[in-house]
Amino acid sequence: IMDSSSNEEILHDFPPFLRVYKDGRVERYILTEKAPPGFDPVTEAQSKDVTISEEPNIRARIFLPKIDPNKPKRLPVLVHYHGGGFCTGSAFGPITKYTLNRLASYANALVVSIEYRLPPEHPLPIAYEDSWAGLQWVAAHAKGNGPEPWLNEYVDYDKVFLGGE
């Protein structure tokens, strides 16, 4: 019989972010809900989710500002890494969606927000490797023949920026 108190033994406590128990469980103090992609009526930006890699599982959300079909032009691209100290947060969270819809619209830039895997379930440097894979995936579209049509059609690859919070 296992003593139930041993299941509650804390290995690491990182308030206000997370707690790691000795049995391997992780409790996140800040839970990130997921907001669906789609059309934003305020900015008229669109967003959609894409798969960068199946194995490992790396995803991203792309934000596209309103495009004037009478004035087609290539846009700068911002590869975005969401906040959370590489241990919390999400490219699919409601705050990220709100912020990046506006950023894409006001900057008139396409934004690719990388959903990297989080520690401690995925120890560092996995988040960094996922982030690098996301940047490489964006760059692989520079000749216009990558798997994502928005990156092929709308991006000026002489104007690539990295950012996050």
What topology emerges from the helices and strands here?
Blueprint: H1 4-7, E1 10-14, E2 18-21, E3 26-28, E4 46-53, E5 58-64, E6 75-81, H2 94-107, E7 110-115, H3 126-139, H4 149-154, E8 155-164
Characterize the structure shown.
This protein is elongated. The N and C termini lie far apart (46 Å). It is α/β, with parallel strands linked by helices and 165 residues long. Strand 1 (10-14) and strand 2 (18-21) form a beta hairpin. Helices cover 23% and strands 30% of the residues. It has 2 domains: 1-31, no CATH class; 46-164, 3-Layer(aba) Sandwich (Rossmann fold), CATH 3.40.50. The relative contact order is 0.18. The mean pLDDT is 92. The protein has helices spanning 4-7, 94-107, 126-139, 149-154; strands at 10-14, 18-21, 26-28, 46-53, 58-64, 75-81, 110-115, 155-164.
Distinctive features:
165 residues, alpha/beta, Rossmann fold, five-stranded mixed beta sheet, three-stranded antiparallel beta sheet, 4 helices, 30% strand
